[in-house]
Amino acid sequence: MQKQCVLLHGWGMNSNVWQQVLPQLHHDIPQVNFKALDLAGFGDNKALPSPYSLETIAAQIAQQLAPKTILMGWSLGGLVAIYIAKHWPEKVAKVVLVASTPLFSEQHDWPGIKVKVLENFTEQLQQNSTRTIERFLSIQALGSESAKDDIKALKIALAQSNPADEIALKQGLAMLLNDDLREDFASLTQPVAGIFGRLDALVPIKAEQQMRALNSHFSTVVIEKASHAPFISHKAEFTSALETLL
Question: Which of 62, 127, 216, 231 has its CA 20 to 30 A from that of 195?
């Protein structure tokens, strides 16, 4: 019987972001059935919970999961995965975080995105959401040897579905700025793993070290020349890492 693995995308994106790597995942890891879902307000998921928060969007995803699903979250999707694993533990057999962390904003004791950068994105979002998302995509690819190709792939994934809802974009940024799931992450009862890019400009590699200190059962693979989207820039290495972690 195949294991089930549900893939959750990051801020500003939709489930199509996984389409380029899915054929390789299906081919190389046939014992797992991979399925990508849209978070509320992104892609084809127009069912906006009210209020729109990490708790309510996680609850919406949790309702769709079979018991003992492997949950893989990229970037913001990782926060959702951690929240679901903590609050609906019967639904989640294992968590895999991809370029993700339980806290995205930089604190005195935690490496992350500078608070001012996230605040600037929030201000710019109100003026021009399309340009703000494109700028965010550029930062995601920063450091990658294939940055131009990575950005192009991300833009193609975006264009294949509906534009993101303004509320989802605004509240998603608020989650990156404010939500701190370090205690939840530290106390997860399920196995938890992570795949990181050493050149990631949004999730510094120091965060991976801090996460291992928080949770002694956290197993990781670092892809040396990848940045924030390793499943796009380094498909083969990403698939091999995932197969090892699963």
Answer: 62
